[in-house]
Amino acid sequence: MIEQLATMAPGPLHWLVLTALLFAIGTYGILTRRNAVGVLMAVELALNSGALNFVVFNRYVAPAGVDGQIMSIFVIAVAAAEVVVGMAIFVVLFRHRQTVDVTRMNRIRD
Amino acid sequence: MEYELGFALRNAWLILAIPFLSFLLVGLLVRPLSEKAAGIIATLAVFASAAFAYAMAAEFLTLGAATGWKTFVPWSFEWLRFQERMAVHIGVLVDPISILLLVVVTTVSSLVHLYSLGYMHGEAGFGRYFTFLNLFTFSMLGLVTAPNLLQMFVCWELVGASSFCLIGFYFDRPSAVAASKKAFIVTRFADLGFLLGILILGYFGYQVAGEVGGTRQAFDFLFLTDPVVMGKLNAIGAGILGIPVLTLALCLVYMGGAGKSAMFPLHVWLPDAMEGPTPVSALIHAATMVVAGVYLVARLFPLFATSGDALLVVGYIGAFTALFAAVIACTQDDIKRVLAYSTLSQLGYMMFALGVASVEHPLGYTASMFHLFTHAFFKALLFLGAGSVIHAVHSNEIWRMGGLRRKMPVTHLTFAIATLAIAGIWPFAGFFSKDEVLAAALGSGHYGIFGIGLLVAGITAFYMSRIYFAAFWGGARTEGASHAHESPVIMLIPLVVLAVLSVVAGFFPIGEFVRFGAGHGAPHGINPAIAAAGTFAGVLGIGLAWAIYGSGGTARAEALARAFGGAYTVVRRKFYVDELYLFVTHKIIVRFVAAPIAWFDRAIVDGGVNLSAKGGRLFGFALGSLQTGQVQAYGSWFAGGAVLLVLVLWGLQ
Amino acid sequence: MNGQAASTVFFYVFAAVSVALAVATVISRRILRAAVALMGVLATSAAFYVMLDAEFLAGVQILVYVGGIVILLVYAVMLTRSSELIEDRPSGRRRGAALAVSTLFFVAAAGAFVASRFETLRPGALTVSGTTEIGRRLLDQGSTGYVLPFELISLLLLSVLIGGVVIARTNPDKGEDAK
User: Fold this and answer.
1) Number of structural domains chain C divides into
2) DSSP chain A
3) In the listed set C57, C87, C117, which residue is the last one of a domain according to the structure?
4) S-S: A72 plus which of A51, B228, B479, C149, CB 3.0-4.6 Å?
5) A and B: number of Cβ contacts within 8 A
6) Among B283, B310, B359, CA closest to B516
7) CA of C125 to nearest chain A CA: how many angstroms apart?
8) Which residues of chain A carry a pLDDT beneath 50?
9) What is the reported pTM?
10) Shared-domain flag, residues C77 and C135
11) Are residues C18 and C81 both part of a single domain?
C-alpha cells in the first residue's frame, strides 16, 4: 500500500483537497464549539488552511516568485492580531458574564 | 387671426389666473392669518375678474361686428397629448355665449361676494367660505371658457366639488351634510353619462379627425362643431340598440347637463342644496352652476341640431321639468325651497327653448341664452332678497314672516322688482326673455311645448306672488318678523345693482350676436300676440295670488288646500320623487346590489386579505423561531447559504 | 524507495496526522487538549511548508503560531474559570447542521478543484534562496514590493496591542465594570 501511495506524487489537486478538508473541519469547529476560545482555535485552523493554500499556489502556479509566501506571512500576522483582540474581549466578557459559552451569548435576540 | 386683438383678449389667461391665484392666496396664506382679510381679498379678486371680463366683452363686441362673431381661442397650451390629433389643451375659448356667461358669472359672483361680506359676518369659517367661493368662481370660469370637452369636464367636476363644499358649509348640521352628499352623488352619477358621452365623441371624433386631416384635436369644440365633421359623425349611423352613435353620445352628454341643471328626474338634489348659506344658493344654485347644463347643450348645439332626436329629448324633458317644478313650488312653505323649484322650472324653460330650436328655427337658441342671462340676475336677486329676509327674521318659513314691507323697504322693493321680472311683466327683464322663449316654441311648431310654457308662466307668477305677499304684506305673524330690521348697506348694494340689472337686462340686444346660423338674422322683436298672452298669464297668476294671499291671512290658503285634498298632499310631498329614490336605493339597490357586494367585500376580499395576513403571521412565527440569537446558528445558515449560492451559480454557468 | 517516493509517502502521512489532529481540535471536549491538538496541526502545517519549498515560512509558523498564538490561547483558557476547561457537548441539531454545512463546503470546493486545471503561469525557479527573496520583496518600494502592506501590518499590530490592553483592563475609576 505504501508502494502504491508512493507512486501518487502530490500535485496541486491533492494539496488543495487537503486544505479544503482542513478548512471544512475549521468551519465545523466554528459552528459547534461552545467555548469561545475553542471557536477561536477553529478560526485559527481555517486561517491556517488559507495560508497553506497561498503557499500551494505559490509553489505550483508561480514558482518563480514568493508572493504567496508573503501573503502567508500577512495571514499569520493578522491571525496573531485577531487572537490578541479576541483574548481581550473574552477576558472582559468573562468578567461580565462569568462564562465564555457562546451559546449563552444570545442577548441579540431580545 | 387677421384682426388686432386688444389687451384683454391677448391676455385672456388672466380670466382664469386671477380667481385661481386668489383662491390659492386666500386659502393657503391669508385665511390662517386673518379671516376678515381673506374675505376682502377674495371679493377684490372677483371684482378684478369681473372688470377683466367686461374688458374682454367690450373688445369682443367691437371685434365681433367685424369678424362676424367668429369663435376663436386667444390663449391655450397643450396639457395632455394622447396621440396626434388627440391632445387636450387648457385654454380660453371666446365666442358670444362664452362672453355672455363670463359677464353673467363674474357679475353675479362679485355681487354675491360683496353681499356675503355682510351676510356671513361673524360666522365661523368666514375665510373658508370665501376660499371655496373663489374656487367655485375659478372653476365656473374655466368651464365657461373651455375650448374642449375635457377641460370642460375637469372644471365641471371642480364646480361640483366646490358646490359640495359650500352646500356642506355648515358641516355640523347633519341635514347639510346629507344635502351636500346628495348633491354630489346625484350630479356625479349624471357625470358618468357625461364622461361616457365624451369618450364616445372622442373615439369617433378621433376617427373622423384622421379622415379629415388638419391640425384640430378630437375633443375641441371647434373641431366637433365643424360642419364637415358633424356630417361625418352623423353618418356613422346605428350604434347600440339601433340608436345612432351621435344621438347616443349626445344623450349621454345631456345626462351630465341634466344632472348639473337638475332636470327631472335628476332634480332631487337642488331643493336640498338650499342647506348651504343663502348667498351660495344665489350664486351656485340659481345663477351660475345650474346653468352649466344649459350652457353645455348650447355649446354643443350645432351637434344637437344635427341629431334632431337628442334635441327632442332635451326639449321634452325641459318642458316637463318646467311644469313639474312649477306645480311643486306652489305648495312649499320654505322660501328658499320655493325659489329652488322656481329655478328648476326656469332651467326647464331654458332647456326646452334649446330643444325647440333647430337649423330652420334657430330662435330658441338665442332665446335660451337670453333667458339664462336675465334669469341669472333676477334669480340671484330673489335669493339675495330671501337671504336678507332670512337674515332679519331668522326663519325660512314664509308663514313666520309677514308685514316686512315697511320694516325692510329696500329689500321689499328689490324683491318686488325681481318677482315682476320672473313673472314676465313689462318692462322687466323676464318679460322679454320669456316672450322670446314662447315665440321660439310657437314659431318652430311645438304647440304642446308652447302651451306648457304659457301655463308655467302663469304658475310662476302665482307662486312668486304667493311668497311675496306672504312675506311682505299683511301683518307680522311671529316675534321674529315683528322685530325685523333692514339689512346692512353692504348687503343692500348688491340687491340694488341686481334690481337695476333685472330691469334693464331685457333691453340688451343679445340677439345681435348670440345666434345660430349666419344667414337667419335675429328676430328680436316683440310678437304682440305672444307678449299679450304671456302678460295675461302673468297678471292672472299675480291676481290669483293676491286674491288668496293678499290679505296676509292663511285662512283662504288652508281652505284651498283642503279643497284640493289628496292632490295637494301629493304635490306638497314633491310627487314622492324623493321617496321613490329612497325606495329604489334602499330597498332595491341596497338589498340586491349593495348587500351582495358588501358580502363579497367582507368575505372574499377582506377574507383574502386576512388570509394573507394570517399566512404572513404564520410564516413570521416560523422564521421567528429561527431567530435564536445564537451566532453559530446564524453562521450555519450563512455559510450553508453561501455555499449553495456558489453551487447554484456554478450550475447556471 | 527513492527521495521522491519518500516525500510522497511523507505527504500522505502528514496529511492524515494533520486531519486527525484537526478533527481532535474541533471535537475534543477538553479545551486544553484541543489546544495541544491545534498545536499539532500547526506543526504539521510547518512540515507542509517545508515540502512546498517555503522553509522561512515554516520557521515563522513554528515561532509565531505554535510558539506565540497557541500559548496565548492557552493563557486565555487559564484566565477563565476551571469549569470552562471541559466544554458541554453542543446540541445534536447544531452538530448536524454544522456537519452538513462543512460537508457541503468540502464537496463544493473539491468539486471545483477537480473541475479546474492548474497551469504553471510563471515557470522557472528562484535564483536566490526563498528567504532572501522574501526579505527583499517585503522591503522593496517598487511596483512588485510589499513595503506598504508590511508597514500597515506593523501599524495593525501596534493598534491591536494598545486595543487589547484598553479592552481588557479593569476601569480603575469604576472598579469592576458595571454589571
Assistant:
1) 2
2) -HHHHHHS---HHHHHHHHHHHHHHHHHHHHH--BHHHHHHHHHHHHHHHHHHHHHHHHHT-TT--HHHHHHHHHHHHHHHHHHHHHHHHHHHHHHHS--BGGG--GGG-
3) C87
4) A51
5) 25
6) B359
7) 5
8) none
9) 0.65
10) no
11) yes
Facing residue for A31 by CB, picked from B627, B629, B635:
B635
- Say yes or no for a CB contact (<8 Å) between C48 and A37: no
Q: Do A87 and C76 touch (CB under 8 A)?
A: yes
> Does some domain include residue C115?
no
CATH of the domain at C65: 1.20.120.1200
Q: Which residues pair with B220 in a beta bridge?
A: B148
For B28: left if phi > 0, alpha if psi spans -120 to 50, otherwise beta; the answer is alpha
Judging contacts by C-beta atoms under 8 Å, the chain B residues touching residue C104 are 640, 643-644, 647
Contacts C108 to B, Cβ<8 Å: 643, 646-647, 650
Reported residue count of chain C is 179
Contact across the interface for B646 and C98, Cβ inside 8 Å: no
Domain that holds residue C8: 1-87
Contacts of C11 in chain A (CB under 8 A): 10, 14
Strands B238-240 and B86-94: unpaired
Residue of chain A minimizing CA distance to C102: A24
Radius of gyration of the CA atoms of chain A, in A: 18
Residue C99 resides in a domain:
no
B437-486 residue pLDDT tens: 888 888 888 888 888 888 888 888 888 888 888 888 777 777 777 777 88
- Residue B76 has φ and ψ, to the nearest 5°, of -165, 160
Q: What is the pLDDT of residue B94?
A: 87
Identify the three-state secondary structure at position B1: coil
In a domain, residue C109? The reply is no
Chains within contact range of chain B (3+ C-beta pairs < 8 Å): A, C
pLDDT value at B266 more than 90: no
DSSP state of C65: I
Q: What domains can be seen in chain A, in order of their start residue? A: 12-104 (1.10.287.3510)
Q: pLDDT tens-digit profile of B326-385? A: 888 888 888 888 888 899 899 988 888 888 888 777 888 888 888 888 998 888 899 888
Q: pLDDT tens digits, residue range C115-149?
A: 888 887 777 777 788 888 888 888 888 888 889 99
